[in-house]
Amino acid sequence: ASFAEPLPGGAPAVGGVPLAELADRFGTPAYIVDEGEIRARARAWKAALPGADVAYAGKAFLTRAMIRWIAEEGLHLDVCSAGELELAAHAGFPAERIILHGNAKSPDDLRTALRLGVGRIVIDSTCEIARIASLVPAGARQRVLVRVVPGVTAGAHVAVQTGMEGQKFGLPVAGGEAEEAVARILGQPRLELMGLHCHLGSQIASVNPYVTAVRRLVTLLERLRDVHGVTFPELDLGGGFAIAYRDGDHTIDPRAYAERVTAELSLRCAHADLPVPRLTVEPGRWIAGPAGVALYRVLAVKTTGTRTFVAVDGGMSDNPRPALYGVRYTVRLVGRASPIPARTMTVVGRHCEAGDVLAEDVPLPGDIRPGDVLAVPASGAYHVSMASSYNLVGRPPVVAVTDGRARLLVRRETLEDLRGRDVGE
Ligand code: LLP
User: Fold this and answer.
1) What ipTM goes with this model?
2) What are the structural domains of the chain?
3) Which ligand 1 atom lies nearest to the CA of residue 157?
4) What is the pLDDT of residues 247-298, one digit of tens each?
5) Which residues carry this modification: N6-(pyridoxal phosphate)lysine (predicted)?
């Protein structure tokens, strides 16, 4: 990420703006996103898969500016709630390029999707087939995909593994539920089934599980053709592509993915004498993650026994990922150079529990002190979107940097915002 590139003089910067300057101007904690980096990463997927649709998974990070960048780069958008849909519509994102996901879509989610005219709704369970069909006006047809479970275990943590049986998403291929659902969808004249969808999991660091999934999905397509006499024009393989949180972490390269997945798909379809469906991929983290940096200010430094704790002004309310999935981050001191050698310290948040750890056992200069600014790279995905106001700490602002200029995208949540929803006596 551009975060790694120091400005002349050595100060770490994002999009040409020194991080320390951003901390002073916008306060801390704050989330910085590099527009150029987001656009470049969106383009990398488009370039790797020119014959495919690239749908950015909005759950990773969504603001109106982000939606506009994604639209301008020619991507599609994956959303999973009426909230994400409304924001996309408000930002002017073309509805026909939107895919609605969800294992439990609310009446509001579905009504909003149909009102806006989203391109695809992904059916996740048999009971929503008739429900969705009943909302489609007479004479119209809603295009849908069906989410199937290919029986592939992949993903960095059990909480984000969705490709195997025994978790809540999709309809298993192995148990016959997927085929049964396809038959039912085909019986609904107001639904047009465009193809299969699967999403294996998240932070997947190898292409192998995707290749296995392609093999199993083509086997299912073959059976659907043989038994039900249908073929489909689309195949959505979901997202889940790993990024580096620390040096040396394995990542997925879009070109390597494209090469192996399209080769496997062509080969298997040729063997089965099936038309090759148009691919969709749904990267979220890969596009947003490396383009974001979290900034904090140190509030306290404490050595107890053998451990040094560096407490900052944010924590698990703006980044619950270490506590939820055991994710390890790197942390850098910005705004001043330190001649003092690094020591191992643990960066903790300000929240009222011992599990509020941002980065365990990271090297930081031995003279770290209150007032210092710390930066956490790879904070662009699933931080802002998963932030809470635990302990009534307001959520941080989001700042975009482009060509050496910074602008506020989302303002800091104030005490008035927090109090305003509390309307009881
Ligand atoms: N498509 C579907 C249907 C998904 O459910 C997801 C993510 C994606 C695409 C994008 O996955 P990505 O490319 O971003 O890995 N909160 C967790 C990640 C949850 C992912 C949920 N689904 C985390 O912070 O690691």
Assistant:
1) 0.99
2) 2-32+289-420 (2.40.37.10), 35-285 (3.20.20.10)
3) 25
4) 999 999 999 999 999 999 999 999 999 999 999 999 999 999 999 999 999 9
5) 59
